[in-house]
């Protein structure tokens, strides 16, 4: 499979007041076409700086950044590459219709029925009824939906999203995660940063954790699953042994070793319990909290 993104020894040093600061240090990463890569890390870790380097907005102090084999500063490298920044940079006097229309021109996408095509994308993001309203009148979530619609409407070969779920309510987050899953199923390549680990877990093929400007871990969901020896079972019903913990709303949680999972499920069934879900105990959140233990986070 060919490579969409390549970071080789990427290092970025900036000037902060009287001193120099290394904000990205020797990052090496390659993302294949068709892959979904979730980039996570605490505030100030370097996620946005990496993404800006990827888009050619930050020049590396040393090392290389390649998009489809070319430096991102070359316009041909960015053809078909859609990017939504953390604070979307939409021109807020425009309407969602005009934003999407403009982006189609920019990427030279010429759908057969342009108006219908644009309205379909706005509809998919739940903003068709405000297609002709200026963006400055929008809530943060609606502006974010507009920025994402604008990016996805060009059917990009690579989609780069910095915190795509920020500002969205739970309904908006589900909508966006579903649309991104669909983009992935269609062979799209996605690189995104997120704080909302639960959502990231659902869509990424690999996760990278950045801490203090260094990429400290890259894992697939199955590698994470292998590190987990326990599972959480949640159900409604009786707590029939001392290991079963009550949760809110009458729900119970029972943490068992993976080899005891089936017998535990049988016991719940026999007690008349109603199963809610079964999850590996070591979630992405727990795994990364473990990695964060003892790490000194930067003051921003
Ligand atoms: N142009 C710059 N000049 C000086 N410092 C910078 C510059 N860009 C980024 N930084 C610093 O680099 C560090 C990483 O910032 P970055 O925005 O990449 O983090 P982040 O992981 O995206 O954080 P958040 O989740 O809060 O958005 C921060 O300490 C930030 O202050």
TrEMBL record:
Keyword check for Cell membrane: yes
Record flagged with keyword Cell membrane: yes
ABC transporter domain mapped to chain residues: 5-237
GO-annotated molecular function: ATP binding
Domain of life of the organism encoding this protein: Bacteria
Keywords, in A-Z order: ATP-binding, Cell membrane, Membrane, Nucleotide-binding, Transport
InterPro entries: AAA+_ATPase, ABC_transporter-like_ATP-bd, ABC_Transporter_VariousFunc, P-loop_NTPase
Record SMART domains: AAA
Pfam families for the chain: ABC_tran
PROSITE patterns with a match to the protein in the record: ABC_TRANSPORTER_2
Protein name: ABC transporter ATP-binding protein
Organism: Leeia speluncae
